[in-house]
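Lab intake sheet, docking and co-folding queue.

SAMPLE TYPE: protein with bound small molecule
LIGAND NAME: magnesium ion
LIGAND FORMAT: SMILES
REQUESTED OUTPUT: full 3D complex as structure tokens
PRIORITY: normal
SUBMITTED BY: R.K., bench team

The fields below were copied directly from the construct record.
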Amino acid sequence: MTAETTSRKFNIDTVANAEATPGQALPWAELGLKENEYQRVEEILGRRPTGAELAMYSVMWSEHCSYKSSKVHLRQFGDKVTDAMKEHLLVGIGENAGVVDIGDGWAVTFKVESHNHPSFVEPYQGAATGVGGIVRDIISMGARPVAVMDPLRFGAIDHPDTARLVHGIVAGIGGYGNSLGLPNIGGEVVFDSVYQGNPLVNALAVGVLRHEDIRLANASGAGNRVVLFGARTGGDGIGGASVLASESFDSSKPSKRPAVQVGDPFAEKVLIECCLELFKASVVEGIQDLGAAGISCATSELASNGDGGMHVELTNVLLRDPSLTPGEILMSESQERMMAVVTPENVGAFEAIMDRWAVEYSWLGEVTGTGRLIIEWDGEKIVDVDPRTVAHEGPVYERPYSRPAWLDGVQADAFAGGQPTDLREAVLELMASPNMCSKDWVTDQYDRYVQGNTALAMPDDAGVVRVDEETGLGVAISTDANGRYSYLNPYEGARLALAEAYRNVATSGAEPLAVTDCLNFGSPEDPEVMWQFAETVRGLADACQELGVPVTGGNVSLYNQTGGVAIHPTPVVGVLGVFDDVARRTPSGWREDGQAIYLLGTTAAELDGSEWANLRGHLGGQPPALDLAAEKTLAAILVNCSRDGMIDGAHDLSEGGLAAGLSEMALRFGVGARIGLDELCERDGIDAFTALFSESQARAVVAVPRSEEVRFNDMCTARNFPTIRIGVVDTENQALDVQGYFNLPIAQLREAHEGTLPKHFG
Amino acid sequence: MPRIVVDVMPKPEILDPQGKAIAGALPRIGLTGFAGVRQGKRFELTVDGEVTAEVLEQARHAATTLLSNPVIEDVTRVEVIEEDGQ
Amino acid sequence: MPRIVVDVMPKPEILDPQGKAIAGALPRIGLTGFAGVRQGKRFELTVDGEVTAEVLEQARHAATTLLSNPVIEDVTRVEVIEEDGQ
Amino acid sequence: MSAADIETPLIGGPQPVASNNDDSPLNGVTVGVVTFPGSLDDRDAVRAVRLAGGSAVQLWHGDHDLHEVDAVIIPGGFSYGDYLRAGAISRFAPLMEQIARAASGGPDALPVLGICNGFQVLTEAHLLPGSMIKNNHLHFICRDQRLRVENAETSWTSAYARDEEIVIPLKNQDGQFVADNRTLDELEGEGRVVFRYVDGNPNGSRRDIAGISNIAGNVVGLMPHPEHAVEAGFGPDSSARGEVGVRGGTDGLGIFTSVLKKLVG
Ligand SMILES: Nc1ncnc2c1ncn2[C@@H]1O[C@H](COP(=O)(O)OP(=O)(O)O)[C@@H](O)[C@H]1O
Ligand SMILES: [Mg+2]
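RESULT FIELD (auto-filled):
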């Protein structure tokens, strides 16, 4: 297929015209620029921008693309990385996604991103294109995507709008991911009324590559050709980057073009295959996916990361809608497109691969030695900029922040709810509650088998995929966040989110190695929200340093608020761990009769911010205390246990505490257990209710074969880590029998646990 | 029983992957006379009784709220059809 | 450009799960005037030039071989439509 | 292009397409796995053939040549996007014409297995009767599914016993098998219902049908995915044959050993 050149005459605003008409008024405010920002553009250019330049600066300087409010804080992720932490880092923050060395010449790249606002407007397409976007980030690093995950947050489960969002978003994630052949190996589903008008749709993708296959987004080598390939460019999401993702909702805002992007997963699947073929044949020098800000972003980033400049003829772009203006073409967020830099010798090879996969492409221009990004329209110059000023030198704000005055009151308001009279009923209520109930209704809509490498997926603590079929080398990933903890204490909340994801990965048996994060917050223009943000980043960066796992990349989503009310600060943290052989992964349940059940860690009365308090309608006090040294030891024990075959099942304790942990372990394989709490209560000075519902950190429950008990205990003692035998697996009795308190048949527990989502959405 | 037909098409400016896939397949089976294809939906609502103005209004309401997604689709027709007619 | 519309409906004897789901949802939003719903497909083929008999024949061929599956669907219409018409 | 050109970068190192064992009687016997641009489970089918002891050859949808393979698997996925109807467009692929020709002509004709999307393609290509419509609950569903093997005499089921039960993953959106009553009666009467869902019908398929064959028994379509239950550690959590470890189910392997047995025997 050859590129057909489209040439249309618009009344275009050329650079010459801009110079000749300095007084011309431009719609910078409508495009989301502030007055000072517009002035800065004029200063940079030494003249007024052309319409096309204005379009580029406005999308690239939007919050979504420039991180202008968050940048000053995010620096800590780099500043607090030690040399030891860099050991496994092949590509760090700043590229499309970080790349981590997992040994044997293999590397993985992973990243989580938000698609919150688009998913509220059009749930199916918003979620679908969220998956599409993050997968293209992974491809652009040179990797084959191998799995996806989807941390989701919705409003109250019984709110009239929630079903619309749940149905659309879940179907969209599945519809896109399933069609790409990417197993979905985990995620989260949380319901809380704070997310009513601002559901959070975060999508994570992970890819696999050989070290030598790493590709970076830069355009180097004067004379090299620049090509756009994949779907045609349409009017999709014009203004989406600046309006949809960076401003609060205002439905009255007129929109000339659809701000909604429609995904074509088949086109993306073909794009994946053809990119992998390009990489294999070493045909591209640099590559960049097109996401937010479309061609504006791709050209300016490629050019500014390279060693020269770039020259582009914009009428060469293949269009779906011939009425698009140059500025609109530059801003369009049409999905399933990529841009690449190809040496002249490789042009033929490139075209052959495109033809084989029937992918459309058009040569837009070439890399130059001028240092300028020049874009022409039918030979007339419409953009002449230093690409760095577009891509990297956007405004940076030190937004004012202040600790909310209300926080003292909230933190002083500890949970004082009375104890339930019936612990059995309380456990049933907990396990049927929206946040603790089974997520099968969601995850059954996702393909977890495709590619044949999934070693663990829902409902286990981490998703595990094999990377190397010969050796069993593989990775584990978990994503976690607790918005309530972060609301009570954003610094600790971020650290707790990291600790939970880290613990989940270790519980599955993998060695935690690296971090990605998606920071979902309200408006940065609100000093209290900005304080929550600053505290979160500080907490996360500190905790990463203490645990020795670097942040490799991530995403910030601001303006998640409706009216004056922001969501809870919600830092979604993804931790990636590595397995030398996934065959040793630990499932989150017990199975063998007579195995001993141990609780690792200690339990204190920590119910503030807990699921139990949430069920009683209370949110106050301080989140559970965090001891990262203890988390590290616990992780080491769990990884060792897996390595040495000392345990057959393990589950970390987090939301819902021991009650949730024991219930989930019993439900995992439908096998009962006899549990005794007395010794634990005595040792930790707590009552049975606290033992069951407290959310103390650094804890896990494990199932130990009889033959391993001595070795297991010795190891815990050697590491000076508290452990206590709390029961035994019982395959005869189909129940969770907490002796002296209640006997809960598994069938009944299952009915409560699995009935909730179908009841609301089935 | 009388029927009301509701036609729903993807908005012209919105990508229609289904139509695109069909447009790509037509030449492969030798049909080259077409410049483009859009795929939409056609609903037939059977009316139990007479088609009153109120029922037609109900159909219009259903068309814009339930049968179409106004963000990406247009309702292009809501009309009573004759038995076996179009 | 002229368009040819092709309507495809599920055969009456084949269960139509989507139509059934819609029929179930209508009363829930207060629309009770309907006895049943069937969901089919509507294709619009854009013709690049004049609609000759040959092009119309191509559309008929596309309708029965590609756009519908005779085991489960009927082609209920293949027709040229006026610009903006139905 | 030829089949050799389409070997795309695979995770897990180069996928051995040769048999594991040089002097096995299977030497020289090859099973072709078709790749459409939107195929998803093609690599898994290749792996399954290999784990069963055979050699797999990847076949390209646009090719006009079957490369002398001894059997063909049309794997799961979304062949050309499948927005119109699953399998509707793939039916016209050049390779499908070759397959259709080779698959007809009695019990010794080319054995062909269509899994999920492959089954849909076979019905659209009229190699198997009936059709697939949306699941009755309208959702994509992924679950471990128990099936009964009702005909253990086809090219693809001889490794099982009649009425034996197996557990393999099911995952699809358009998996509801429909056909008119006459066709259904014919299928039943001729013993061409090869697999039936047990313990609950997951999608509303007529008469719980999960898989069928043509009259000769060389062409089989199956909605669930045997290729995802061939390797301990990466399959379903359960098996119909008793306790297995985590994701230890390998009940699907028999499908692939069946055809290999048929080809050498
Ligand atoms: N939206 C989702 N997509 C995929 N998997 C999910 C989703 N929500 C929850 N899960 C999976 O369900 C299981 C239980 O979730 P959760 O209780 O949040 O796990 P944990 O407490 O261990 O972090 C996990 O395996 C998780 O990955
Ligand atoms: Mg966990």
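REVIEWER NOTE: Residues 170 and 397 of chain A are 36 Å apart (CA to CA).
SIGN-OFF: pending second check by T.M.
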